[in-house]
Amino acid sequence: RHIREDGRINEWRTPGKRTIAKVGSNRLQVVIALNGGELIYFEVDVTGQLMEVEKHEMSGDVACLDIAPVPEGRQRSRFLAVGSYDKTIRILSLDPDDCMQTLSIQSLSSAPESLLFLEVQASVGGEDGADHPASLFLNAGLQ
Question: 50: which of 2, 56, 77, 140 fits an S-S bond (Cβ 3.0–4.6 Å)?
């Protein structure tokens, strides 16, 4: 359910008898994982409407997920992290040119149960006097 600033409510219903298992979001993007491993990706458009963008089928149920924060000056984050019970984390693209394509896979010693992207802000004029860009880190909690 998306409740807009003006009070209007847009409701999205899951297909068939599927249920929502996990959700990740930032200020402009939402990813829903349904039971069975289907991912559904939404973006908030310029009018504030939540629009379904893409669907992607994972190989099994999703254990956890997170969307990176939207970088300053950008319309969307490029990265989605999806943790699976097969002891892997996949980084998927949210870029329109290769949306929901796997960019990276990391094998783990146990299944992930939580994921968090963390952006560490740039330092301006640090000890070396140089400006440094922000860095993006993915933190994973394991079972």
Answer: 2
